[in-house]
Amino acid sequence: MQFVLRLAATAAFCLGVAGPAQAATEFDRCPQFFAQGSAPQVRNAQSLKPRALCFDAFAVLHSGTTKTPVYVAERLNSEQVADAQDEERTNRFFADARLPRTERAELDDYKSSGYDRGHLAPAGDMPNATAMAQSFSLANMVPQAPQNNRKSWAGIEKATRKYVLRAKGDVYVITGPVFGTAAPTIGANRVWVPKYLFKLVYDPTTHRAWAHWIANSDSVRIGRPISYRELVKRTGVEFLPGVPIAE
User: CA 16, 71, 24: angle at the middle one, nearest 5?
Assistant: First the structure.
């Protein structure tokens, strides 16, 4: 994993923030999506032009440099996941007007790119029509290999919901992209294409945390989850600052 660790020192790989104080204030309007209300502590955020966006069912730290999320945070529970099961998928993608034009992806960027508009907060998690509509913001998307998005990644999303349905309380999920050096881009706005994707799951009832880590390719197969500490090691990001984690 030395390759990934070297990337952690570069602007191409870094996921984020100036410091704990700023992280705490960026999401003042939606702290409920973070365990103990603490947003991830990410390094070198300002080079990524970060903007905190609150939605009804998730929060996004968006990068105006990559034109993608830095990460997306959700708080799920069995009631919400059950409500989402009969919610009609809208498929109405849109560019998020809250972001400056120079910092966002547009619908044309994805056309004929060969990549899907891959949700980080899944449409399948959305418990009502408003949340469903919001999930199709391009601020919640990354360019994703089509078969990866529709098969392997969809399997990870379903496994996460299955766990939440069994859990005794809220479960926190943080999902994000990881970029290599000289990341490829799509479209006129140069939307960065991730090399990897991760989905971190934390259950505060048991204090257990694990992460799915997957290459952004069509040929990839789902492997065993990695530990929270391994995710931190690979990314250099403390996703659950101050939160007790069972080792």
Answer: 60
Cβ–Cβ < 8 Å for 9, 54: no
What's the domain count of the chain?
Answer: 1
**Residues with Cβ within 8 Å of residue 28, at least 6 apart in sequence:** none
Long-range contacts of 225-233 (CB under 8 A, 24+ apart): 228/200, 228/202, 231/198, 231/200, 233/1, 233/5
Give the count of beta carbons closer than 10 Å to the beta carbon of residue 155: 14
Running DSSP on this structure, what letter comes out for residue 89? P
Residue numbers of the domain that contains 98: 2-199+227-235
Q: Is residue 47 part of a domain?
A: yes
The model's pLDDT over 168-177, given as tens digits with 9 standing for 90+, comes to: 999 999 999 9
- Is 119 catalytic? The answer is yes
Alpha helices in 67-222 (DSSP H): 78-84, 107-110, 129-134, 146-147, 153-166
Question: CA nearest 193: which of 101, 117, 111?
Answer: 117
Residue range 76-117, pLDDT digits in tens? 999 999 999 999 999 999 999 999 999 999 999 999 999 999
Domain assignment present for residue 220? The answer is no
